[in-house]
Amino acid sequence: MAGAFEGSAPDYDLIVIGAGPVGENVADYAAKRGIRVAIVESELVGGECSYWACMPSKALLRSGHVLRAAQRLDGTRQAVTGELDVPAVLARRNTFTSEWKDDGQVDWLNSAGIDLIRGHARLTVPRTLDVNGRAYTARAVAVATGSVPVLPDIPGLAVANPWGTREATSASAAPARLLVLGGGVAGTELATAWASLGSDVTLLSRGPLLEREEPFAGELVTKALREMGVDVRIGVSPTGVHRDEAGVVTTTLDDGSTVVTDEILVSTGRRPNTLDLGVDTVGFIPGEKLSVDDTMLVTGTDWLYAVGDVNGRALLTHQGKYQARAAGEVIAARLSGGDVHDAPWGGHVATADHAAVPHVIFTDPEVAGVGLTEAQARARGLNVTTVEYDLGWVAGAKLHADGYEGHAKLVIDEDRHVIAGATFVGQDVADLLHSATIAIVGEVPIDRLWHAVPSYPTISEVWLRLLETYGRPN
Ligand SMILES: Cc1cc2nc3c(=O)[nH]c(=O)nc-3n(C[C@H](O)[C@H](O)[C@H](O)COP(=O)(O)OP(=O)(O)OC[C@H]3O[C@@H](n4cnc5c(N)ncnc54)[C@H](O)[C@@H]3O)c2cc1C
Ligand SMILES: NC(=O)c1ccc[n+]([C@@H]2O[C@H](COP(=O)([O-])OP(=O)(O)OC[C@H]3O[C@@H](n4cnc5c(N)ncnc54)[C@H](O)[C@@H]3O)[C@@H](O)[C@H]2O)c1
């Protein structure tokens, strides 16, 4: 491999482009194996998740969740009679973003022995990239540049100065009226957050909410949002947007109606961040994802890796970090001539991306899913049975909230007699999800699950109820 540098030593063994959660983990896991690593970052070390996505959005959501949970309990309801203190919630959110400063993350890079190069990186020739006009060489390069929001082509939208998810997670005050465009994960979470913080929210969705989930998830979230006062409009799309001189935004819909708000949030999906990255030099179309194998090696190369949102496999921090652990270690192993464990479920592959991607949507109720929905399983041709149970009938759930509303569903692969997918919707179900992830990744036979006894009285007793609904083995 040294021949690629015409006799001169490369600057690094590995250069990672993008110091989001994923890039940081690629660098860390590679550096721990003793190779020389640098990371390039054009904005803040810590990436989207830390400053404009996961952390601030969850901080914005949490206070409303806690207040409503208290209001659902007789006895506690009487003790909690006020409204949220919005400036205090926003100030608490700011602490979770470290006030949008990355000093702590930079200290961690230093302590991990990873060099930081500030600037925008572009691939130029194999194993070489340009940052601020200087060429850096490495034996391997890992791209972890994340994703960027998609702005739909709606007349007037771009010039109406819309909010993206960055503005919606970092705003310093609640707009009096907010229109949210897009009924996916970000749209439903941010509609919940800003409605909790006092905004008068209208949520527009061209299809059912959360359509990649089991249908009951979107139905329960729609009902709950409406009960919170959100005007959820399904099956409509904007035909035009106009912001007047006073800053008021008027959005015209295809049913002829108009919505007047102070801000419009666009949360209509994201695309891989590859537009200005030089990916054409490795045969990819700028703006499209970098396709990879299960070790995150980019198709058609033997030195370039793509990890996290940028490879399009799962736009989630924890799943990207899982890929990063595998990629960091396999890069180090390949560069140092070590053993490579790339068989399915080996230490150097992200096999779970295909079978068990856990995700939690922090609406109220929470939506927690892993593996395949029934529709996805049937589309893959699996021979499946499903079982469902009303979480409101579980004693542990009744203790969490008076009139608890929630639902659970398992998708069972009958040929392998294991769980292929699980979905839980309800208050406080997020931490229940990992039990299902373990059952799917561990391919635990259904019959054996009868020996995994949930504690009484917890929400996890829904596992027993689901098994009883499915039927006890002979
Ligand atoms: C509103 C919102 C809420 C979310 N909430 C959750 C959640 O609760 N849980 C969850 O798991 N996921 C959540 N996500 C998804 C999560 O944010 C992403 O999956 C995660 O940030 C991806 O990490 P990454 O490291 O791949 O990319 P990013 O976090 O986007 O980091 C990429 C980094 O690369 C840098 N960069 C880009 N191009 C270059 C370049 N050419 N040169 C140098 N640096 C460059 C960027 O500045 C950035 O710092 C949320 C997303 C949004 C939008
Ligand atoms: N809790 C979490 O883990 C969390 C939270 C937020 C975001 N995320 C991640 O970020 C990713 C992006 O989130 P997102 O909500 O932006 O995307 P998404 O794909 O979840 O939802 C986008 C929504 O916008 C709609 N849409 C797309 N184009 C449209 C158009 N032209 N007009 C009207 N509606 C349109 C889609 O039908 C969909 O309902 C998600 O895939 C998710 O992985 C995760």
Characterization of this structure:
GO terms for molecular function: flavin adenine dinucleotide binding; NAD(P)H dehydrogenase (quinone) activity. Residues 12-319 form the FAD/NAD(P)-binding domain. This is Pyridine nucleotide-disulfide oxidoreductase. The protein starts with 11 loop residues before the first strand and ends with a helix. The protein folds into three domains: 2-46 and 102-149 and 271-352, FAD/NAD(P)-binding domain (3-Layer(bba) Sandwich); 158-268, FAD/NAD(P)-binding domain, CATH 3.50.50.60; 365-469, Enolase-like, domain 1 (2-Layer Sandwich), CATH 3.30.390. A hairpin with a 4-residue loop joins strand 4 and strand 5. Helix content is 30%, strand content 23%. It has helices at residues 21-31, 47-52, 54-71, 86-96, 103-111, 165-170, 185-196, 215-227, 317-336, 352-355, 374-379, 395-400, 433-441, 446-449, 462-470; strands spanning 12-17, 37-41, 115-118, 121-123, 128-131, 134-143, 147-149, 177-181, 200-205, 231-234, 238-243, 249-253, 258-261, 263-266, 270-272, 304-306, 359-361, 366-371, 384-390, 407-413, 418-426. The chain is built from 15 helices and 21 strands. The strands form five sheets. Strands 1, 2, 3, 4, 5, 6 and 16 form a seven-stranded mixed β-sheet that branches. The chain has a five-stranded antiparallel β-sheet with strand order 17-18-21-20-19, sandwiched between helices. Strands 10-9-8-14 form a four-stranded parallel β-sheet. It has 474 residues and is an alpha/beta fold. 49% of the residues are buried. The protein binds flavin-adenine dinucleotide and nicotinamide-adenine-dinucleotide. Nicotinamide-adenine-dinucleotide binds at residues 152, 181-187, 189, 205-207, 237, 267-270, 315-316, 359-362.
